[in-house]
Amino acid sequence: MPDLEGFNSAPAAELRPLLTDCLAVPRWVDALLADRPYPDVDALVAASDRHADLTDDEVRAAIASHPRIGEKAAGGGVTAKWSADEQSGVTAPLADRLLAANTAYEDRFGHIYLVCATGLSGERVLADLAARMGNPPDAELRVVSRELAKIAALRLRKALA
User: Fold this and answer.
1) Domain extents for the chain?
2) Of 87, 65, 85, residue with least CA distance to 74
3) How high is the mean pLDDT in each 10-residue block of the chain (161 residues)?
């Protein structure tokens, strides 16, 4: 993974997969690449936040690259490792409750539940999921969009650490 200097100077084609692992939204990837060079990682994260105002279609597409909370990401690589690290507070004893809660959420909203789980216990994730069940579908997509932006910022920092 590149450091910031490498990120600023690398060909866009080399960085595209890494950025897509952070947030699978081509418009966001293109915007971050176009805004280079960045003076520091905080400036990159600020640019990420500026460009992370996702459309509903972008949110739905980005969700598809994430596993359900409590499940391992398919395949290997950096995305699977990041996902496992982010969900480290969600432990196996909660598996049945998480499965039931995820199923209810998916039935209600038509997509997986997504939260920036870094630092959250499994109980906290379940409480957040339950609280969000009352959201109207359009409001819930906005919540998911904000969670995707948080995940992208964390992953950018990890990628350039």
Assistant:
1) 4-159
2) 65
3) 92 96 96 97 97 95 84 56 51 77 95 91 91 97 97 94 82
